[in-house]
Write a structure and sequence with these properties.
The chain contains 8 helices and 7 strands, in the order ααααβαβαβαββαββ. The chain is an alpha/beta fold. Strands 1-2-3-4-5 form a 5-stranded parallel sheet. The longest helix is centred in the N-terminal third of the chain and has 33 residues. InterPro entries: AN11006-like (IPR038883).
Length: 324
Amino acid sequence: MIDLHELARQVESTIQDPERQNEAIKRLLFATARKHNRTLRELQCLKQELGRDDSPLNFLSLPREIRDEVYLYSLRPIGSATHVSLIPWYFLTAETYASMHKPPIPGLLTTSKQVYTEARDILYTKNIFYFDEPHEITEFAKDIGSVNSSIVQQISINAVFTTMKEPTVADGAMNLYTSKVRYPSDWARALNSSQLGNINHIKFSVESIYSINALSLLPMPNALQQAIERIFKRRRDVDILPRLSLKGFQHTVPEMFPKDWKVVREPNEGEIAAQRESEELGKSKEASGSGELANQHDHFSEEPVGEDNDGERSDYVTSHDGLD
């Protein structure tokens, strides 16, 4: 594309006379207009030769492969052009969701019965559904219905626990802050009673509201372990191995699940911060060690010496403090 403003600046910088500047700009403008008109005539001739149809295109007349690409773009969130991973879609119920970039468009499913049939599989099988409270799983299933609940494949749970047991009066004032905190038993009941029937990937992140130490890792309660195993046993695609991503749990928790599962324990924020601090400390020690080595080299110096026994002046020799 020709930048007319840049051309005008070039003319002004090379031609000082205002009248000559105007003439040069006019010539450039007329030349650009002639090129534009010539290109437009060529395009109009091509349109007549090809017999282009200006009537609206019916979406359902497109090949199924193209329609599926449209569904994928419309029903899956996208990130930036340089970021491969998808931006999480925090889908709490059928009506409430948020995305940092392009939000999915579930309303597309209401376009027609055929579109609904073709697109709903992509909506519910290609997205990860995020839950922060146990009751959201139940509400989600009610909103989308049992049929759609049975094809959801991926969920992510971000749970906040107090401790592994219910708080008591002995906990004192801390009870004031636990009214909205859920316990492992709450999540176990929610998973057991859910209508999710084809889950093959669960991301489970946990933290404790009572934990002061960010490095504190929690055990996996038996009830929660059993609920996760029941969810995976419901899946129809038995050829797909269950995937379980854990964060905030103790290092031995992955060993509690079947060996043929793909179980991954991810470091939480406290572990990442501790690892970063350890690396910085190691770099600091390396730098300190390099400084001490440099100081040792500073003890060496090149000194001129006087005439030798033969009366000739010797070259520079290296001597060390304290050496004769």
